[in-house]
Amino acid sequence: APAANANAEAALDRLGLRAEDMLAAGKPAKHRLHALQLASEADTFAAQDAALADTLRERAAALAALPPPPLPTGLRATLRPYQEEGFHFLAHLAARGFGGILADDMGLGKTVQTLAWLLHQSHAHTALAAADSTPDKKTKPFRALVICPKSVMHGWLTETERFAPELAAEPFTPLLSYATRMPGPENGPAILVVNYAQLRLNTDWFQRHSWDAVILDEAQFIKNPTSQTAAIARAIPAAHRIALTGTPIENRLLDLWSLFAFAQPGLLGSQAGFRRQFPMEDPTSPARLRRRVRHFMLRRTKSQVAPELPPRTEDIILVDLDGEQRSLYDAELKRARAQLLGIETARALDAVRFNVLASLLRLRQICCHPALVSDAHSEMPSAKLDALLERLEELRDEGQQVLVFSQFVSLLELIEPRLKSAGIDYLMLTGATENRGELVDQFQSDKTKTVFLLSLKAAGSGLNLTAASYVILCDPWWNPAVEAQAIDRTHRIGQTQPVVAYRLVAADTVEQKILALQKDKAALANAVVQEESLASVLDLDSLRQILG
Hints:
This protein is an alpha/beta fold. Helix content is 49%, strand content 11%. The protein folds into 3 domains: 2-63, no CATH class; 79-126 and 141-305, Rossmann fold (3-Layer(aba) Sandwich), CATH 3.40.50; 312-319 and 381-526, 3-Layer(aba) Sandwich (Rossmann fold), CATH 3.40.50.300. Strands 3-4-2-5-6-1-7 form a 7-stranded parallel beta sheet, with helices on both faces. Strands 8-13-12-9-11-10 form a 6-stranded parallel beta sheet, with helices on both faces. Mean pLDDT is 82; it is low at 22-31 and 521-534.
């Protein structure tokens, strides 16, 4: 008996569990939660408690019995095999009443995997309601809440429209405007997207209503379990909870406890118990913790799924201008439009072209940072810089190296102090840099140099920077060929990793319209002339489209 007890205790320890997890065989919820983990050690427990071992095997078999569902109809995306596996993982958890964490590396498509799952859940919700024969029963529609940083709200809205258009998605607006239009989620969109600041300011409303699903994107925002945001998220009533993050553990194992306290409460016990079970100073703690959560967290790195990735992925990150930055932009836009009033011919346009293009330049500068048009605006916020720093901090935590391009050297100089404050090591190369080769060699050989700030004109061609696998273009350039050359600084012979390029674009501004114009007008998009490129050949219709 002592030997059996010792074996059982050792088995529990391997799984990061304690004896209290095994107490009270009559607690089905407790055994259901741990059945998948404990079943792998059922033979060990059989020597101590045969009935318990049989129960564990039965529960594990029941949990694993459901076949993976097909991809939902209405999904307008072709998922790569690993993304389909991610969808099955989320569906598997939901079908068994669990929550969990999708922790894929950045850029592997956590959003589209989650949208596939939400579409599947919506269809299941509708089918269940149709099967309910209760007379006169009014079924509430499927409602999901997505909580994310402000910088990625646009991404959720646009990707929902692109990949799952039958699920209407809307951003949360201040509560006063919701008082009459949306007293409860059932009167709103299928997917409500809210940022973390709005969540804190409208806590009562979110916690007063129950949701079919709550998605926490960039879930490392609640890594501190004692933070107000973490406490609010844990208290939101939801049938299903999913956390999305590329960095489930940033600094300490307790980060993961906080994420699971939201996604699957009880899985890792109390915070005090977790600290006792998984002390940081114990070298076995990470391995035991991985075994404990392996059925509830799915993580794939780029190196693991590289065969499923194209060699080069390009994506657009939309950011919202608001407050002072938006007001400054709108005022300049009004002036730019006024310059086109009464202009009906190409000759008339030529007379004002210089002034119009100058206004267009100022608009593009304001999109980056108001300080680019005047030092008097140096204290104004920049939505684009905020989004950039969020992304760079994530990539730094993943151990990645990043090329950051801008056509404005003054913007790179504004980024510098933000990097210093965030503790991100960097290098910078502009037209005034003399020791270019030395800096390139340093970046290529020193993994601690997370960021290379690069002037588009000075570093857009001729450099080999394959140490980086990420490129961020801070501002769209007139000539897409110049942007392609910048990306090719790392996407070239010698690069062994998939390359991911992000374009930071201010939503509802000339930047977004320039991108649309590049697609709409092939002749302009393919222009390969000098640095003016598109700007030099913009006709009246094009300018009206951009400034309209």
